[in-house]
Specification:
The chain has about 160 residues and is mainly alpha-helical. The protein folds into two domains: about 5-55; about 60-155, no CATH class. The protein has helices at about 5-10, 15-20, 25-30, 35-50, 70-75, 95-100, 105-115, 130-145. Helix 3 (about 25-30) packs across helix 4 and helix 6 (about 95-100) crosses helix 7. The radius of gyration is 28 Å and the shape is elongated.
Length: about 160
Amino acid sequence: MSLASALVLRAGDRDRLADLARLPNAQIARTVGVSRPTVIGWRDRYQVGGIGALEDQPRSGRPAEIDEIKVVVATLADDGRPPPRLGITHWSARFMATELGISFASVARIWRKWHLQPHRIETFRFSTDPELGAKIRDVVGLYLAPPDNAVVVCVR
């Protein structure tokens, strides 16, 4: 169902539609946020087929080939963590797109539609840096036993 049709159908019950039907086309168009020709088309469709005729009609063109559910499931699988073989801590639209063989714009559109933000998963993640252990030992060592007359500076 198109947004415009949905707005009319969601406008409430038949009383609301009856109230709208008494208004001029231009006023309905301003109220609902569509063009006047759209309102005229709605009125014509309603006269021919009643309330059911306001539902969207089949669209021309090829249907979408991307399975949105597949993208959502892949994003949320394993608590939203990418496989270790990728060496990343969280999904980005580009990594997910490469993994699924689709465009990153499609992944980003699907994430927006489903309100997914895999980069904001609230879990602690270790770095994928292979030298992380040595770096942690160096930093902790500086704090526990700093050299004499040394200044330790932390820069982010």
